[in-house]
Amino acid sequence: MSNRDLVRTLEVLVRRNLGGDRLFDHYIYVKIERNILKFSTDEYCRTVRALADKNFVQDPVFWEDYVFRYATHDANGRVGKRELTFNQARQIWDSLVYLKFQCPQIDLKDTLKHIEKWLDQSPRSDLLKHPKRLES
């Protein structure tokens, strides 16, 4: 199952309130743990929102050791190597804030601080670094 298929399956299961605990515990969550660092920004945000809608708060290790590492680790698991554009950081920040509203008991303080470092960049600064983008 590809990452895109996994995210879509999770969204459908949550939206339609399908699937038992065994399906989520032994398959969906395990696949997310193994692959989340390789997700695109869109797939990551959709996953966080689906888990927020499911109100999944029972496993803080899942959040801290897997889901929140997306902000600080690249696809190969190297610390501090993830590069985000302003728009990607904004999309992730919006999804994490949505998670906080849906699941207030989850601690997002450190993760949000890390994402906000990327938001401190001006959206125009990306274009100034790459002047060819200004021409198009």
Describe this structure in words.
The protein contains 8 helices and no strands. The chain has 136 residues and is mainly alpha-helical. It has one domain. Helix 1 packs parallel to helix 3. The protein is globular. The termini are far apart. 22% of the residues are buried.
Question: Keyphrases for this structure?
Answer:
136 residues, mainly alpha, disordered C terminus
Instruction: Tell me the total number of β-strands.
Output: 0
- Beginning-to-end CA distance, first to last residue: 37 Å
Average predicted confidence as pLDDT = 87
* Strand content bin: under 5%
Radius of gyration: 16 Å
Taken together, the total number of domains comes to 1
Coarse shape: globular
Helix content: 55-70%
Structural class: mainly alpha
How are helices and strands ordered from N to C? HHHHHHHH
Query: How many helices?
Result: 8
Major sheet size, sense and barrel closure = none
pLDDT < 50 runs, ≥5 residues = 131-136
Entry summary:
The chain is an all-alpha fold and 136 residues long. The chain contains eight helices and no strands.
Please render the helix and strand layout as text.
Elements (H helix, E strand, L loop, with lengths): L2 H13 L5 H15 L5 H14 L5 H8 L18 H17 L6 H11 L3 H7 L1 H5 L1
Helix pairs in contact: 1-3, 3-5, 5-6
